[in-house]
Fold this sequence. Notes:
Chain B: It is a multi-pass membrane protein. The complex is a heterodimer of chains A (707) and B (642). Chain A is mainly α.
Amino acid sequence: MEPGDTARPGSRRVVGALPPRLLPLPLMLLLLGWGLRAGAAASSSGASAEDSSAMEELATEKEAEESHRQDSVSLLTFILLLTLTILTIWLFKHRRVRFLHETGLAMIYGLIVGVILRYGTPATSGHDKSLSCSQEDRAFSTLLVNVSGKFFEYTLKGEISPGKINNVEQNDMLRKVTFDPEVFFNILLPPIIFHAGYSLKKRHFFRNLGSILAYAFLGTAVSCFIIGNLMYGVVKLMKIVGQLSDKFYYTDCLFFGAIISATDPVTVLAIFNELHADVDLYALLFGESVLNDAVAIVLSSSIVAYQPAGLNTHTFDAAAFFKSVGIFLGIFSGSFTMGAVTGVVTALVTKFTKLHCFPLLETALFFLMSWSTFLLAEACGFTGVVAVLFCGITQAHYTYNNLSVESRSRTKQLFEVLHFLAENFIFSYMGLALFTFQKHVFSPIFIIGAFVAIFLGRAAHIYPLSFFLNLGRRHKIGWNFQHMMMFSGLRGAMAFALAIRDTASYARQMMFTTTLLIVFFTVWIVGGGTTPMLSWLNIRVGVDPDQDPPPNNDSFQVLQGDGPDPTGGSRTKQESAWIFRLWYSFDHNYLKPILTHSGPPLTTTLPAWCGLLARCLTSPQVYDNQEPLREDDSDFILTEGDLTLTYGDSTVTANGSSGSHTASMSLEGSRRIKSSSEEVLDRDLGMGDQKVSSRGTPLVFPLQENA
Amino acid sequence: MRRQLMAGKDGDRFQHQGAVELLVFNFLLILTILTIWLFKNHRFRFLHETGGAMVYGLIMGLILRYATAPTDTESGTVYDCGPLSFSPSTLLVNITDQVYEYKYKREISQHNISPHQGNAILEKMTFDPEIFFNVLLPPIIFHAGYSLKKRHFFQNLGSILTYAFLGTAISCIIIGLIMYGFVKAMVSADQLKNGDFHFTDCLFFGSLMSATDPVTVLAIFHELHVDPDLYTLLFGESVLNDAVAIVLTYSISIYSPKENPNAFDTAAFFQSVGNFLGIFAGSFAMGSAYAVVTALLTKFTKLCEFPMLETGLFFLLSWSAFLSAEAAGLTGIVAVLFCGVTQAHYTYNNLSPDSKMRTKQLFEFMNFLAENVIFCYMGLALFTFQNHIFNAVFILGAFLAIVVARACNIYPLSFLLNLGRKQKVPWNFQHMMMFSGLRGAIAFALAIRNTESQPKQMMFTTTLLLVFFTVWVFGGGTTPMLTWLQIRVGVDLDEYVKEDPSSHQEANKLDKNMTKTESARLFQMWYGFDHKYLKPILTHSGPPLTATLPAWCGPLSRLLTSPQAYAEHLKEDDVECIVNQDELAMNYQEPSPSAGRPPTKLSLDKKASPQTPSKENLYEGDLGLGSYELKLEQTPGQSQMD
């Protein structure tokens, strides 16, 4: 472990950088050599430790140091994997190779390293001793042990089921690269989910909100039940054949159904993004997958919480069932409220302080508030990941408008990088876990059954729901869209994280293995087949979101009062449900003005009797907008941006042409006409669209935004 | 079943507590941010954000200490295990048929046990000290390295290195000696048991106390645009200082003579010195190796088409430098520091403009958060840490010692440096440097790393108090001190330039002489080597290697030179053109500030530039970028606006 020695992998990589296909091997061998030596050092220090107690203490110290070193090595392994992935992905993107997404690649590299770690490192036995101490009656988080006059502090790491004690004493290196599953939930998933919420394409998302909610809630429930029932059948079959060696209850099947219902079509979405596939399809798929995750998490935790009262714990019990449903609703709404509330608080803070003079402080506040959401929800017993999702949506909807231009790009880029790293980390860990996880239970019948089940579950979810939705939608979901959605039922990070969370029982281990294989299969095969599928299904690509909404412009003009367009009116009515329209107008008339600098001034939208309150809540900039004399240049730019967003929204809001709304809009419109002409307005709209598009394509050169 | 449920609940509570604890920190940071905004908005400069974070931490610590009831008293019960003769790293405990896995954390000495039986919340609020070294400090240090003002830094490199290496060693020894005197006095005054406090302990204290961290002062300098030379001297010193202090502390702590721990042992001493040099050189090599790899990767791949991938790669490789140094038994933080310096010097030039912004902002943000977390934690630790030993004599002695040591470090060294420097370090600068000997995050992190024995606990308490005092009093007194010492403020780097724009052309020859007198031959050689070989190899800028390398390695040089270096005129790519345009524009302002002493090569090229514009421009463009970066740093808000 000389410095020169460690520098070598680096230089090796430089040479290998030109043909990246060749480079992993020497690098990994070196890494492996490292691990071996570290392991050998640990074991040799351990061997000498048997002599005297003084020597042993020294050995323990050394061992702690050694373990820190090994921690570093294992993290380094992952980081080098990610580096490799980035370089290869660059090559693929450069050559426009689309059949393998970065996540798929990360998994492949993970697999390779997993194989090396599994079969290349010797099994070193730890010095674990099982002893029986009679004093304790429950487990404490810290344990002070008196060993011949010296006191040692031990911290609780986890509970081990009796069957696995032998496994604990296995390969040290494999144990090092196995993370605590809670890491996924507490560190890696939140940025991914937050980024998803933060980058929901707002306009298209809200336009399809009804359908998305239907797919996410009803669809997930349907898919969960169908998969659960099918799997129960498979399990029964396995029992008959004699393949099952342990218990497998109906609730376990349902649990499996819940975790495997979390779709995660990153691969497909990335390709859509790159090819500019139809925006509506994109919004449907993306919205569904994002909300889907939230539903699946809460669903799986409420299934776990299903505890019938009687002796037989796995029969149907109405009370327990309703309690589970109650838990589902409670957790979901609690997390939702928590996320929305912190989003609103952030919006208010950024609105009423002039924090935007200091983008760094603003970004930090934004980040901390969003993280607080997660922690707060966890501390209150809700689901942090769900709270973070809704916090992200709220932040994007309100707070984003209050941020300074620089903070906008900073927050976006920050979460983009975090999301990218976390996602690829999870996928490479998946590859690694196939070999390093030591309790796999491969059961061919179960795996095949699961494949059939997810296929059927997806079909039973998309086609009937699309049929029902088409009854109500003006803009029908075409057959090719339905097929594409059916096809994009990839499983990813969320299913994996849910499955790895609990791998104590036999049933859960089998589920974990199956989930892993399903993820591999779907990401590689289904993800790789996206481009052929798109052309086969004749889905139009190369749709620029800017060009998309000529019909929208019509309805926009309706709003401007250029003459009521009856077809437009009826269309909007059919498209969005009444409740959504109500929400739109409420949002536009009250929430937006209260929480952001945009929207009509509250003094005009609120009734007269709360004039005082309205005056104090409306930001001065809104009034300023109405006065032509504005000196501050940057302010002008900012408000311009805000206006854009307002108008961008109002294209959506256009659908709900309620009375007060039109009034306020026309008021604004007249004010605009005073200062500028309709063209400005159109240009504004264009700018809004551009913003949306740049959010969708993260690799767009962001300076264009300001140009 | 029921028991499992209980255990599950226990785990749940465990996790919720973790969430609550983090939430407290989040909340404190949010408060700090809002307060700081208020202060900044009103141009109130007495309290820096780090000071504010400490105040809030203190308040929260007070509340936690006195408002929460001791809850979990049982957790501290000591168990005797007869069959165990040594302490294994993993302990499997069988509690009524349920096996739990426990992980070895540390050894606790006898007298520390009782506090462990105290308040569970206080216990929870105490981080593992390794977190500072593995999570919080690396971004701070990397950011410091990454944002070293390159031009002024290299201009003053000799002085900075002297202050950092010699100065830290002097300060360490002087503090150690003074403290040893105080300890002896305390022993004779019966305040301390004899034999507790060795000379090595005193030296240890001296080395950890030598890590200065004038964030507060530097922030004010930055805001007021104080003389860049003073800024660079202070900043460079504090950054390198940290690295030296960390390695020094480590080598003192492993100094273990064979027989008598108090006696001087030559072999052990030289082993320690060898350790110091080995670790320092190893970490330096590791850090720069990773940075060089990054530079080569970004140069030879067209990764700049995808700024996100580029940023990701940059981040990951910089992190790898830390991890591999740790894995190899070196000091990760030092590696990260040099990695940052090298990245700024080479890789930065290869990044796309978008990535430049992104990496800067990313590390700035991480630095901000990590720094405030540490200072918050310091405030909190004053009340939540349960093994404080307040010893008035020791604290007073330490205070005296750091003042004396700082004086012994700055004044003699400045005198010596002034003998060699063309641009003298004036008296008011020296006083200011003397005054800016604040202690901060590094000293705290080094002190909290080991709080097992009584001397170490006493040191920890003293360090904490010194940090408080210096940050609040010295930090708050910076603005008055600046006016009192009549140090000019409001020096804009660009204006600084315009003072003597015309004199530049004639100054070329003068420059040559000046450079010679001012920077030692060694540095000059380095400049030449860097400019002629390293820059062209690692970045897109500089003269093409084919021109600088001897003819016999022609193929190699052609391979390594990036096409951009010669194919200047036949450039179609639009984006690239803009970038270069940018470089060029910046460029013209550049030579004049360094009129003081640009490297000889530069001035020659400047003369020739009108005739052969393209190549020369590019060549200067590289230095110009440096100044562009400076501006970026100063006004992060503006640069994006336009």
